[in-house]
Design a protein that fits this description.
Shape: globular
Number of helices: 2
Mean pLDDT: 83
Low-confidence stretches: none
Strand order of the largest sheet: 1-2
Bound molecules: iron/sulfur cluster
Helix content: 25-40%
Length: 103
């Protein structure tokens, strides 16, 4: 049985971690534009680990409508993604971390 204080501490740490990651990611991503980021290569180890492809093979699922894309407001076909920091992904791409944006 988990003590109440342990549960509260866990919830506080988890909430703090989520807020920190969200704000940190937003700050880091917003400081660069997609044009400044190198494009993620499909055959790189990080892309392969999440089965990233530049062109989605699943109808209705692509980076453009993924919750994790960080569109910089430009019309650039390559945009930052929260899953691949320091890289840009093709808006028509896909990876196994795909999460649909809320309707
Ligand atoms: S998490 Fe995957 S599907 Fe979503 S934007 Fe990034 S690369 Fe694309």
């Amino acid at each position: 049985m988990i003590k109440k204080s342990s549960r509260r501490r866990f919830i506080r740490l988890t909430a703090g971690g989520i807020i920190g990651l969200t704000l940190g990611n937003k700050f880091l991503i917003s400081s660069v534009t997609a044009a400044q980021l190198p494009q993620l290569k499909q055959d790189s180890p990080q892309a392969s680990a999440l089965k990233y492809v530049n062109k989605s093979l699943i109808a209705g699922q692509n980076c453009k409508n993924c919750l994790l894309i960080r569109n910089d407001g430009s019309n650039n076909k390559w945009q930052p993604c929260a899953i691949f920091p320091g890289k840009s992904v093709n808006i028509n791409g896909w990876c196994s971390a795909y999460a649909p944006q809320p309707a």
